[in-house]
Amino acid sequence: MSAVNEKKVAALEAVKYIKDGMVVGLGTGSTAFFMIEAIGEMVRNGLKIKAVATSDETEKLAKKLGISVITLAEAKRLDVTIDGADEVDGQFQLIKGGGGALLREKIVAHNSDFNIIIADSSKQVSRLGKFKLPIETIPFSTQLIIKELEEMNLHPVQRMLGADDYKTDENNDIVDIDIWKTDIKLTDLEHQLKSIPGIVETGLFLTSTDLVIIGKGAQAIIEKK
Ligand SMILES: O=C(CO)[C@H](O)[C@H](O)COP(=O)(O)O
């Protein structure tokens, strides 16, 4: 079965966790797309929820499908968030941000009681780092951060959109770094990166995930912490 079908299988399993009255965090990306589409159908069939979107793209899609979108401030706290990932390891640690929405995704995950990650089977890894780790930086500081990351042997590459710098929903830059060869522990790496002024967030999600649902062929494999 293709990765696209596996994404859909995982998404359809995840929406079973959504119940009437919940405040739901909506992730971003091609896997999250199937989840949002399914929630849209559930809402048309009478489900009553409120949602917080992790990107402008997700917000637009959710509203188009008739899902009631509120701000994080209005929500205060979320019952459940469903989001995709670029890599997930056996300890439920993730690399996220391939789609550039890592900052809002991490904020929403932090404010959710229960976080479900949905992915096709290609995203499961024994060790994080084949996928380049996205770092969100303040444009004022990006070039100097790139120099600092080069000195740390993390091979930074600024993300581009054609000839222009890629911009996040918060109008920040993304720098993708290579953590595969570093022997720094992930928790230490996260701490080191976050201590550089101008780095707003990293795509390392080390502790937020409660449940992982992997589409494997036509089956949804549910992994609990
Ligand atoms: O972190 C993300 C966006 O910032 C996505 O969840 C991640 O990139 C996975 O995307 P997809 O489901 O399209 O493979």
Automatic annotation (TrEMBL):
Substrate binds at T28, G29, S30, T31, D83, G84, A85, D86, K96, G97, G98, G99, K123. Its EC number is 5.3.1.6. The keyword Isomerase applies. Pathway: Carbohydrate degradation; pentose phosphate pathway; D-ribose 5-phosphate from D-ribulose 5-phosphate (non-oxidative stage): step 1/1. One of its GO terms (biological process) is D-ribose metabolic process. It catalyses: aldehydo-D-ribose 5-phosphate = D-ribulose 5-phosphate. SUPFAM superfamilies: D-ribose-5-phosphate isomerase (RpiA), lid domain (SSF75445), NagB/RpiA/CoA transferase-like (SSF100950). The keyword Isomerase applies. GO terms for cellular component: cytosol. Gene3D superfamilies: 3.30.70.260, 3.40.50.1360. The active site is at E105. Keywords: Isomerase. GO terms for molecular function: ribose-5-phosphate isomerase activity. HAMAP family: Rib_5P_isom_A (MF_00170). Homodimer. Catalyzes the reversible conversion of ribose-5-phosphate to ribulose 5-phosphate. Belongs to the ribose 5-phosphate isomerase family. NCBIfam families: PRK00702.1 (NF001924), rpiA (TIGR00021). This is Ribose-5-phosphate isomerase A. It comes from Maribacter arcticus. The lineage of its organism: Bacteria, Pseudomonadati, Bacteroidota, Flavobacteriia, Flavobacteriales.
